[in-house]
Amino acid sequence: MPFYALYYFRRATQLRPHDARMWCAMGQCYENDQLQSVDKDKMEVAAIRCYRRAVQNGDREGIALHKLVHIVSLHLGSTWELTIHCTRICTYAGQVACSSERAGS
Q1: Using CA atoms, how far apart are residues 4 and 77, in angstroms rounded to an integer?
Q2: Would you place residue 58 in the very low, low, confident or very high pLDDT band (cuts 50, 70, 90)?
Q3: Domain 2-104 CATH superfamily
Q4: pLDDT, tens digit, for every residue of 23-52?
Q5: Would you state the pLDDT for residue 103?
Q6: Which of 18, 34, 75, 99 is the most buried (most CB within 10 A)?
Q7: Domain boundaries along the sequence of the chain
Q8: C-alpha torsion 99→59→27→88, nearest 10
Q9: pTM (2 d.p.)
């Protein structure tokens, strides 16, 4: 089933290339165990590309940043990239906290 989902999410990203949700969904497909059994390294790199694209397109929920930090920390070990993404998460969390405080006022 993840192969079918991947096919349709690829089509969705072609139709809506600036929709971060489609990129997140495609990245999650690449993280699926059935796809990882084919070629784990290749699928992880593809998932990272999808999550980066989602971040570039303004992922509102912040899912892509969390997934990106998780993959980078477990498999790539790139401390420079990990630091950048952690900083973005903290910035995003601060924005969410500020907007919820304003809504409560």
Answers
A1: 31
A2: confident
A3: Tetratricopeptide repeat domain (1.25.40.10)
A4: 999 999 998 888 878 888 888 889 989 998
A5: 44
A6: 75
A7: 2-104
A8: -70
A9: 0.74
